[in-house]
Design brief:
It is a single chain. Helices cover 37% and strands 27% of the residues. Helix 4 packs across helix 5. It is α/β, with parallel strands linked by helices.
Length: 191
């Protein structure tokens, strides 16, 4: 895997003062710029959130998912406890923004999140976590407290570091209740 690492910069936020660095991953002709937001002191077993981009949830506060709430909750906890947020540019569980919106349209017609992805030719989760291995190596991280409810993410990342899972539970609402049930019942999320 080819990648470049940017310089570090400061990132003051309402959640605390962080450092910021980008990892530019080359996937054939595609370049993905991932962000790493971290506290100055990481400790021996930092609190880590590996968060895949969700423009609709993270930026526009969509209530169709729990992504934006998880991102804010993670930044708040990391700001208080120290640690790292790895923001992966893998929109829509790896299918991209265009395809995600098409999947959203199918969800509006009654498909669940998995059925919608499959209807447009994708698996339920197309993400790749290989760059995370290189990020952990770059920072010398061998053990983490991972903020996640996703057993597939735990399984993928435990090949790189020792993991203790920490749950991250965002309250459901009338728009995302069925989505969260699908994640729990069909994807095995620990909700």
């Amino acid at each position: 895997m080819q990648f470049q690492v940017s310089n570090q910069a400061k990132l003051p936020t309402p959640f605390g003062d962080f450092c910021l660095q980008s990892f530019k991953e080359q996937q054939g002709a595609l370049e993905l710029d991932h962000l790493v937001v971290f506290t100055k002191e990481l400790g021996e077993s930092p609190l880590v959130r590996v968060h895949s981009e969700c423009l609709t949830g993270d930026v526009f506060s969509s209530q169709k998912c729990d992504c934006g709430g998880e991102l804010q909750m993670a930044l708040e906890r990391i700001g208080k406890e120290g640690g790292m947020l790895i923001y992966l540019r893998q929109e829509g569980r790896g299918i991209g923004l265009f395809n995600k919106i098409n999947a959203y349209a199918l969800q509006d017609q009654g498909y669940d999140t998995i059925e919608a992805n499959e209807a447009i030719g994708f698996k339920d989760d197309e993400r790749d976590y290989t760059i995370v291995k290189h990020i952990f190596t770059h920072y010398g991280i061998r053990k983490i407290r991972l903020l996640t409810n996703n057993p597939k993410k735990i399984e993928a990342l435990k090949a790189f570091v020792e993991i203790k899972r920490c749950s991250i539970l965002v309250p459901s609402n009338c728009h995302n209740h069925a989505y969260l049930q699908t994640k729990k019942l069909k994807m095995g999320h620990l909700l």
